[in-house]
Amino acid sequence: xxxxxxxxxxxxxxxxxxxDGAEVEAIxxxxxxxxxxxxGFGRSYGDAAQRSGGRVIDVRSLDDVSPIDEAGxxxxxxxxxxxxxxxxxxxxxxxxxxxxxxxxVSVGGAIAADVHGKNHHRxxxxxxxxxxFCLATPTGTVSVRQDSDPExxxxxxxxxxxxxVITSATLQLMGVETPWxxxxxxxxxxxxxxxxxxxxxxxxxxxxxxxxxxxxSLRSDYRAVLTQGNLASADDLRNANVPRERLAASQPRLRxxxxxxxxxxxxxxxxxINTAWYQRSGRRKLTxxxxxxxxxxxxxxxxxxxLYGHRGFLQYQIVVREPATMREIVNNIAVSGVPSFLAVLxxxxxxxxxxxxxxxxxxxxxxxxxxxxDGLSSLLDGLDLFVANAGGRVxxxxxxxxxxxxxxxxxxxxxxxxxxxxxxxxxxxxASDLSCRLGIG
Amino acid sequence: xxxxxxxxxxxxxxxxxxxxxxxxLTLITSRCRNLVLAGxxxxxxxxxxxxxxxxxxxxxxxxHFDAREPDRASITxxxxxxxxxxxxxxxxxxxxxxxxxxxxxxxxxxxxQIIRVNFEWPAAALxxxxxxxxxxxxxxxxxxxxVAGVRVRRSNFLxxxxxxxxxxxxxxxxxxxxxxxxxxxxxxxxxxRTKMTRGMVDPPLALDTAVAARFIVRGFERGDEVVWVxxxxxxxxxxMRILPSPAWRYLTRLEMLSxxxxxxxxxxx
Lengths: 441, 269
What we know:
By secondary structure, chain A is α+β, with helices and mostly antiparallel strands. Helices cover 28% and strands 22% of the residues of chain A. In chain A, strand 6 (130-137) and strand 7 (140-145) form a beta hairpin. Chain B has a single domain (10-243), classed as NAD(P)-binding Rossmann-like Domain (Rossmann fold). In chain B, helix 2 (42-56) links the parallel strand 2 (34-39) and strand 3 (59-64). In chain B, helix 1 (19-28) crosses helix 7 (209-222). Chains A and B meet through helix 14 of A and helix 5 of B.
């Protein structure tokens, strides 16, 4: 049984695990193959990496990491996790230029979702650091660079695996002097103050993200914690007396058992956790944090998604241009009274030419909701409409419920994407539950 | 495809002209793009086709079938899936005939027909549906069973025993489909005011179809394997099931007497 990270919409499918790119190509070019999609670590939240009743190509065996050249370029298998890549490159003074909030994603998935991180306002999305990738399609395997086939390159960036199965990629790494981040955090009690501080100070920090408690308390507006940081230099560490050893990315320390009797995330526990987070952040102003704990606070608990119980949860992530639109959305969530876990608010820089790529200039908000409360579905339907009218969009890697007609409104270049698909996959061999649900042809 | 809330994009409703099925459909068609209604009454089907298309915005197709012909059940299922034209996310099976216990029990052909319509045909159809959904890798089946089958009564044991058979069949089917992505939701409904029960006197806990449908959909969306309508029947029937026979006999006799009373009272008005 397959599900996304949110554990909604379980389906069964024929999962195959090829050992190299040639085997992937053999599957895709076999005329008997239909309804096939790639899957890595199953970290997309909804139904992007599954095809009910079809064939799912588990690429995790394609996980080689090549030696790094002097310019910081590395060739990695699409099934390698960022965890593995970091473990290999960090000891040589390199780090992944763009990383999402978990390191347990595959490189192929990071490209297919065109993931972004806390430095999007400075460094763009994952696509900006991919020099070349190898793509197995039903019409053969091609090596794609931005200048060799721009349409296919950009359609694959954020293309949710629907242009083919990525087998390997050449990444441009980022040099780091130390594996530490010099981070500062600041608490806020109003949303508008938080947003104006982010606007005025983000350009001084490479990394910037805010955690927001969407359940408004009676005494204040919204509680938020803004964390900003830069890579720490050796001088920084010397001055601050921080031990200089290079920490390897650690394995998860905790595990959630597969069968927990009750849903541990509910309106009471979210309130407690949100408050605890806010109180805790008040105590540390300027700190040095290892890269891995700075970027991956939740990776310490394996399977934290199980805390949401058997009905699962969803993450709603959207981007809109205007701060006023974002405030309206946060207000709507607060007024609805639907319990939500800590939300993440971040400013994004300009987008890229990917027709299905998520990021565009403005503000993005990601909120976790447990499935179950009445009114959640209609709340999100209403927000979808509002976001679409404001020219914003929902992030497909997180989506598990968007309506097809609103998908078209949010991604007006769907036609360009489908044109590329017609070229590389004329018989529509590639399909996912997401593409069927959203009507991506 | 189903979304994270279990809201289907494609629905097949067999016995789709029944009052309960229609009420359930109004609650689960918010994302529906393909809807197939199968029923016996062609007039009702064509009328519902246009009204449901207007109300839901979905493509609506209809299929004719007769539940007295179990040999054709798999053909009907095939026609329904073909009409849906792709993956089917939810199948509602609301097929049944209440009959008239007192007259039917004296006519063996009528007894056979009640069993056929309430058990044989739905069981044959469900086997075909299960097969298709298993291949497809996902899907949900909502079957209308009845509390009448939980412990049969003197006053309607024909219908009750057929539903008991169907209920047991569905429990087995549900287990056979575990971990295939296909779920079976057995709806054990109490008395619902529908065209099937028209003219009957309301027993305690009688429900309108709209209320019953809300309970059904809530249980379905929660993923309940057995949906009691209304939910408190679960506890009442748990008690009824372990009641000693003399006490059960006494209760059912009281129930028959009160019904006759009410009927004669109504006749004299």
